[in-house]
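Course assignment 3, question 2. Fill in each field.
Student: A.L.
Task: Predict the tertiary structure for the chain below.
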Amino acid sequence: MKKLLLIIVCMLTFAPIASAEKLPIKITPTQVISTHTDEIEVGDWIKFKTVNDIFYKNKLFIKKDTPIVGVVDHVHENGLIADNAEIIFQTFYVRNVEKDLVKFNYPLYIGRRNSVCKTFGDKVEKYFLVIFKGNEVDVQPESTVYNLFLYK
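Answer field:
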């Protein structure tokens, strides 16, 4: 009887966590994101926008082209021997259709892909630059779409 009661209490306690809905959010930057000039630092707010409408329980939750801000959590500068730069975002802020501020956490990694194997057919100069010095992060506005998830 005690085991059954404990199981029921555990199920009621963890039920909201298990039933959290995962809302996919596609975003694209609205500003240049680059480590080339060493201007991006931890704590900086980088502007993005949503690519499509986001619905929650069949109601519009966030409109397309809504501004969304990502907070830089970590910056890894490029180094030598194919040590590529990387920017990590963890916290995002967006306003829903009711103008409420929604804060959510989801990791977004930009950069740090080692492209040596993928650039085999490219020019020899590029190949050697990638080996001896890592790539910078350089993302132009609206050039890339990133996938995030909001747990509601």
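Instructor remarks: Residues 2-18 form the longest helix (17 residues). The chain has one domain: 20-151.
Grade: pending
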